[in-house]
Design goal:
Pfam families: Cation_ATPase (PF13246), Cation_ATPase_C (PF00689), Cation_ATPase_N (PF00690), E1-E2_ATPase (PF00122). It comes from Vreelandella neptunia. Keywords: ATP-binding, Cell membrane, Membrane, Nucleotide-binding, Translocase, Transmembrane, Transmembrane helix. By secondary structure, the protein is an alpha+beta fold. It has 31 helices and 27 strands. The strands form four sheets. Strands 10, 11, 12, 15, 16, 17, 18, 19, 20 and 21 form a ten-stranded mixed sheet that branches. An eight-stranded mixed sheet has the order 8-27-26-25-9-22-24-23, with helices on both faces. Strands 1, 2, 3, 4, 5, 6 and 7 form a seven-stranded antiparallel sheet that branches. β15 and β16 form a beta hairpin. The longest helix is centred in the C-terminal third of the chain and has 42 residues. The N and C termini lie far apart (about 75 Å).
């Protein structure tokens, strides 16, 4: 036997060969194999030529290099500069805290990066360890990595497919392909060629590596192994996707770089000015500019931002969203597009009977999921439950008896044991007043024809003590219409109106429903065997049953909230276009959704794709490449994209998205490892709740920044003024460190615990390129810094003017700055509304605790003798204390008036 040439490409996506569309005999001939399998020698040759059937392991960087890489960014240099500045002043505790923050950040990043690399290895674990093959006409079990092109593989229910196979034989074969297609219902498989243009989920002649055999048996020939399989191509795509930097990290890096250079430039200029112009001794000038650097650098800001993110993680966990990577908390707040899977996320992933179509008319069924509670209501009001037509009762009975499923109630939760659609039929029977166990006992099963993809139906023979023997058939409606010549009509039957039923099927499909047909036939009493010949004559078509996977009610509310928040929601599903469009309408996603299929996406150039995907709300029959292209196209428009997914097919797009959202219940390990967030309840509403929390986190980071930088800015301006105008420093360097340390870890940190402002989900998403310092914050930093400067210089020169010693004047200045920071804290708690409200005045427990701590610390700073020695302070009188508090109140009033004017005029985008 000759070996296939090295350039042979037999993958299902090969444009030239497309094995899913070719006859099995032709594929066997091309691979130079047969049903007897390869010889052992030939298999060994092919193994050497093509390599092992395994996915490549991740070749990660050396752990030390990965760890050191986390120190290479502007923020870390910024922090280390702060540590050096603190060390130069002898404040080694502060320096140690800063270094500890740097190390913690590096360790957390190192651990998270290691988890990300597990995403690829999680995919490798989906391949079974052994497989059953036919070689030299004998059935053998071999390690899965020794499978080669042309091997003949046997599959049984429960097996995981070991490689991509072109099916040669199949009996009642259904394969769960959700990890590749997202479809919740097992795919029916058969040997006949699929259409050339078939999407992955429609390739009924193929079995793909990593998928699970649900029912039946099959034999297939291996057409792709290792990286050439569908799952291997996804692994390659995942490896090629580069992780994105979150908006917050981009902004902090940009801010840290700019801030570091500005601070360095200012200190150098002032040092030169002090030595060359003012004639100061260089050591004194150095102390002065170090004091400036200490005043300028917000040592506690990065730590407080990290804590703010961590608090957001805890809040999200309470809302069923587990964060795997800390910056994802804030990125969620910037999300402008959510791309969501349909099944189980927007819908319940529980099949429910929605309509019954019989000759007598139509009845709609209420209720959701497998909970057997609901009503059957006819379209004509006169037709109510207690006068249900006979053919409707026959339809329900047929669905219950031609059925192997059972419903189970565990801790108040209803679950189906068996096929989801059959479980929905059992729930329907209970809603209609039947008791499944007793009804099945009365109509005991005598024989059956199991479902098979060849004939696309299931049939049972049931016997009843008084009704005799009867056949019940359930299957594809078009198949049953071909078998039937009659249709039920009350107690009797009449000629089948095939065209009318075809129209009803099309109508149900247009509503996004999956449709089953049911038929029946009476047999003579005493019949105990069922054959295909029994179905050839006088089979009576009873009607149709339409199923839906009902939308989650909370998902509908969440989508409405997204729209009010300016967030686009896009459904990306492997389901059919009609089903996806119908669900989109029911969800309120779009009244007239524009649906784009994967096949149509293939014909769109990358340059044209961004505009098209922006206008499209539903994508159907998509594969992994399509999802990745959609996410990248949206990102090219500047959108911040959150992407949900549960299968291996979703892993590349999850990794590419700004926030990948894995499913906690039904998600594969590969999807979870590629995600930054995991939904513990697989619920779309939890994503929106997480977006809400993300916006709160970003608001709180802005509040921390808006509080920290101006309060430091006032100190910086005071030091600069002292150097430029050659007067005594209003504060010593150690006093500046005291202010920053005592207020930064109390007042600044309290803002991390702020709740949501009332309008947080009525605002548009912030622009992707928006910096950490918005125009309003820049204005606020300048204004508040100036007000702080005026207050500091005013109280300083007032004290010196009345004859106070320098130590007393500096004590007044330090207490004035701290009081101003306290009052400014209450102002900055609400950036989008006035702080003069009951909530604003009371403050959160965190704010009240922080203010209490600062008050006690300042009392100790001012009155304890040990603090006098450490910080060269003096005790203050009551009149001075009242004056300082009055200054704080005056500043808060000024800033509240300013905030109100800015908000009402829309100036600076507030």
């Amino acid at each position: 036997m000759d070996t296939p040439t090295a350039d042979t490409d037999l993958s299902s996506e090969s444009p030239s060969l497309q094995v899913h569309a070719r006859h099995a005999d032709d594929v066997l001939a091309d691979l130079e194999t047969s049903l007897s399998g390869l010889t052992v020698d030939e298999a060994a040759k092919r193994l050497e030529q093509y390599g092992r059937n395994q996915l490549p392991a991740v070749a990660g960087r050396h752990p030390l290099l990965r760890f050191l890489a986390h120190f290479h960014n502007a923020l870390i240099y910024f922090l280390l500069a702060a540590a050096i500045a603190a060390s130069l002043l002898g404040h080694f505790v502060d320096a140690s805290v800063i270094v500890a923050v740097v190390l913690v950040n590096a360790v957390v990043g190192f651990v998270q990066e290691g988890k990300a690399e597990k995403a690829l290895n999680a995919i490798r674990n989906l391949i079974a360890p052994h497989a059953h093959l036919v070689r030299e006409g004998k059935h053998v079990e071999v390690p899965v990595d020794e499978i080669v092109l042309g091997d003949i593989v046997s599959l049984e229910a429960g097996d995981r497919v070991p490689a991509d196979l072109r099916l040669i034989r199949a009996s009642s074969l259904r394969i769960e392909e959700a990890i590749l297609t997202g479809e919740s219902v097992a795919a029916e498989k058969r040997v006949s060629p699929a259409p050339k243009e078939a999407a992955l989920g429609d390739c009924h002649s193929m079995a793909y590596s990593g998928t699970l055999v649900a029912t039946g048996q099959a034999t297939g020939v291996v057409v792709a192994t290792g990286s050439d399989t569908e799952i291997g191509r996804i692994s390659t795509m995942l490896r090629d996707v580069q992780p994105l930097t979150t908006p917050l990290l981009q902004q902090i890096n940009r801010f840290g770089t700019q801030f570091t250079w500005v601070t360095l430039a200012v200190t150098v200029v002032l040092f030169a000015f002090a030595v060359l112009v003012r004639g100061h001794v260089w050591s004194e000038a150095l102390i002065a500019v170090v004091a400036l650097a200490v005043a300028a650098i917000p040592e506690g800001l990065p730590a407080v931002i990290t804590i703010t993110l961590a608090i957001g993680v805890q809040r999200m966990a309470r809302r069923n969203a587990a964060i795997r990577q800390l910056p994802a908390v804030e990125t969620l707040g910037a999300t402008s597009v959510i791309c969501s899977d349909k099944t189980g996320t927007l819908t319940r992933n529980e099949m429910t009977v929605r309509r019954l179509e019989a000759s007598s008319g139509r009845m709609m069924v209420s209720g959701s999921g497998y909970v057997p509670e609901g009503r059957l209501t006819a379209e004509t009001a006169a037709n109510v439950e207690d006068t249900r037509p006979t053919d409707i009762d026959s339809l329900i009975l047929a669905g219950l008896l031609c059925n192997d499923a059972q419903l189970s109630n565990t801790d108040g939760e209803w679950h189906v044991i068996g096929d989801p659609m059959e479980g929905a039929l059992v729930a329907l029977a209970i809603k209609a007043g039947l008791e499944p166990e007793s009804t099945r006992h009365e109509w005991h099963r005598l024989d059956e024809i199991p479902f098979d993809a060849k004939h696309r139906f299931m049939a049972t023979l049931n016997g009843h003590a008084s009704e005799g023997a009867r056949i019940f058939v359930k299957g594809a409606p078009d198949e049953l219409l071909q078998l039937c010549s009659l249709q039920a009509d009350g107690e009797g039957s009449r000629s089948l109106e095939r065209d009318a039923w075809t129209a009803r099927i099309a109508e149900a499909a247009a509503q996004g429903e999956r449709v089953l047909g049911l038929a029946t036939k009476r047999l003579p009493s005493g019949t105990h065997k069922l054959t295909f010949a029994d179905l050839d004559d006088k089979l009576v078509f009873v009607g149709l049953i339409g199923f839906i996977d009902p939308p989650r009610e909370e998902a509908m509310a969440a989508i409405k909230e997204c729209h009010s928040a300016g967030i686009m929601v896009k459904m990306i599903t492997g389901d059919h276009a009609a089903t996806a469009a119908a669900i989109a309408r029911q969800l309120g996603l779009d009244d007239d959704p524009h649906v784009l299929t994967g096949r149509e996406l293939d014909d769109i150039a990358d340059s044209d794709l961004p505009d098209i995907v922006t206008e499209t709300s539903v994508f159907a029959r998509t594969n992994p490449e399509h999802k990745l292209r959609i996410v990248r196209a949206l990102q090219s428009t500047g959108a911040i994209v959150a992407m949900t997914g549960d299968g291996v097919n979703d892993a590349p797009s999850l990794k590419q998205a700004n926030v990948g959202v894995g499913m906690g219940h039904k998600g594969t390990d590969a999807a979870k490892e590629a995600s930054q967030m995991v939904l513990l309840d697989d619920n779309f509403a939890s994503i929106v709740a997480a977006v809400n929390e993300g916006r709160v986190v970003y608001d709180n980071i802005r509040k921390v920044t808006a509080w920290t930088l101006p309060t430091n800015g006032g100190q910086v301006l005071a030091v600069i003024a002292a150097i430029l105008f050659n007067f005594a420093m209003p504060m010593s360097a150690v006093q500046i460190l005291w202010i920053n340390l005592i207020t930064g870890v109390t007042l600044g940190l309290s803002l991390a615990f702020e709740g949501a402002e009332p309008n947080v989900m009525q605002r548009r998403p912030r622009p992707a390129g928006q910096g950490l310092l918005t125009p309003f914050l820049v204005w606020r930093i300048g204004l508040v810094s100036f007000l702080f400067l005026m207050a500091v210089l005013g109280i300083f020169f007032y004290s010196l003017g009345r004859g106070d010693e320098l130590a007393m004047s500096r004590t007044l200045v330090v207490n004035t700055i701290v009081v101003l920071q306290v009052f400014y804290l209450f102002n900055v708690r609400y950036l989008h509304m006035t702080s003069f409200n009951w909530r604003g005045v009371l403050g959160t427990p965190a704010v009240l605790i922080a203010v209490s701590m600062v008050v006690f610390a300042q009392l100790a700073f001012t009155f304890l003798p040990v603090m006098h020695r450490l910080f060269d302070t003096r005790p203050l009188g009551i009149a001075d204390g009242v004056l300082i508090i009055a200054i704080g109140i005056a500043m808060m009033i000024v800033l509240e008036v300013e905030k109100t004017l800015v908000r009402r005029t829309g100036w600076l985008g507030l």
